[in-house]
Amino acid sequence: MTDHQAIELPTAEDIRSLVRPDHVHRRAYADPSVFQLEQDKIFGKLWIYVAHESQLKKPGDFVRTRLAEHEVLVTRGEDGKINVLKNRCPHRGARLCMADKGTSRLFSCPYHAWVFRPDGSLSSVPHKKSYPESFDLADPRNHMQRIEKIEIYRGFVFATLNENPEPLLKHLGEMTEVIDNLVDRAPDGEIEMADSVFSLEYRGNWKLHMENAADIFHPSFVHSSSVMPARRAPANASIIDQDQTREMLMANGFGFDEWEGIQLNGTPSGHTYMKNFYNRGVLSPEQQDPVVVRYRAALVARLGEEKAAHVLGMNRFNNIIYPNLIINAQYQQMRVATPLAVDRTLVRIFCFRLKGAPDEMFHRAVRFQTTLGSPASMIFSDDVEMLERCQQGLSKEEGPWVDFSRGLDSDRRAESGAVSGAASEMPMRVQFQAWVNYLTAEAA
Amino acid sequence: MLDYQTQRQIELFLFEEARLLDDGDFQGWLKLYEPQGIYWMPSQPGQTDPLNVASIIYEDHGILSIRVQRLLEERALVLTPMPRTTHLVSNIVARTAEDGGFAVEAAFVCVVHQDVKQKLYSGRHAYELVRNGDTFRIKLKRVSLMNCDGVHTPMAIPL
């Protein structure tokens, strides 16, 4: 991590000069000082997803993650409340917890044995009498540093370093609908994060991944090496997944009709989503196989016919909650892209179990997670290759402008923001407009 | 413990598999699998459940054949330039399985070289093999990658 003081941060004027209506300067992806400003003004000021409550069922449960440039522990305290704590001993600064998740009623620093409770308060130090009389266990300076601002929306825990943030609900805006939709799909009204997560690091800027997730123009080209063999392969040759993998691979092979048929949406906060994507096979919304029939019956029993039909009818793909959270409710999937450096990004890929749904529904979600998110994915690996090639090209001085003009003449305005056809680069323009707004915002 | 000749045949079969992968003969490699054979690379140490826990790869012959076609497809972006690999298999221990086939364990190291990058993979293989004339077929190959639950970069060539 770059030392904070060592870099002169870009001014608001600098930032505005990097984004034109239809072009973005390569410095947005490659300049370490721009990256540092993003850490301060985006990842340090906006609500950032840190954990799901189902990972923190009982006191002492914790997960380790990142918030801006800090490694943090998200814990469930003895009082049942959720805490977000910097993973650092306040004594000598040592990293405290070396596990990604677990349960611990006490966090003990192995160096001089300061022991902390899950809420970050200092429980004990050995040989207390050798500390000065003024040393106080209750002094917050001796506690793990707390992130004070935490808000939870239907089990999704967000935190921010911003001391005066807008309410989470205001930031999420209409994106609450996709979180609602994911939770409402559970016949028991609750979702649970699966144990398995994929972590993948690529050599490229974090925004490249968020743009790619909103880019429905690239799949026909980037994924042709999996589309073509999937098309040639016989149907139902696999005995383990009811052809789900083959259908998912084939879904990336589309042309004019699909480009016209998929609608893209963008909001002023920088959130984007698209409508309709996987429309065939076991993942199709019209699927009537015995698993789905049983699942629908369970959902109808809880919600009633009309509400269940409404919940199941929502078919929005790659819902991107700015800056770095992607949710696919109908496939129970979630992704988080965490910037590590201007040219390094960690992508973590999760999936959820719908409580009360048939086990097979979860098996399909797990299959989805592997097919689209595994390091050996026949889809994602080609995406990553392109993200890295973009970074390689953008790291050079030549040809400084990136073109995002496609669709500029045909985008429409709707009540909630911008709307376009799938061939448009509107989502990237929306993301960059929000990016400029966040980076140039005056301190509150 | 197996008789020396069978143990040796199994070792040679594993070496042949490694050679096919290193030669880029992925279709030849796929032919080593039973028609319902499975290639499994778990994402968690000690993972026993391929349905409720996501795997890095959990594919049967039907899906593997798509994967192999993609490796041979000229536009697979992650394969340009085509990686070169050295698959090493060692510490091979085979025993007779209850179904009359063979349960084989081995250690592996694989070096993948592509463009300016070199990557190193290691771990353990567990095979279920069945007799097929004077050679064998793979019913199940389980690849326990040492860092299966770690942070990865894209993987393209089977281990």
TrEMBL record, chain B:
Please name one Pfam family that this protein belongs to.
Ring_hydroxyl_B
Coiled-coil annotation: which residues?
Answer: none
Which keywords does this Swiss-Prot/TrEMBL entry list?
Oxidoreductase
Query: GO molecular-function annotation terms?
Result: oxidoreductase activity
Q: State the source organism's domain of life.
A: Bacteria
Family to which this protein belongs? Belongs to the bacterial ring-hydroxylating dioxygenase beta subunit family.
Q: What is this protein called?
A: Aromatic-ring-hydroxylating dioxygenase subunit beta
Q: Origin organism of this chain?
A: Pseudolabrys taiwanensis
Record lineage: Bacteria, Pseudomonadati, Pseudomonadota, Alphaproteobacteria, Hyphomicrobiales
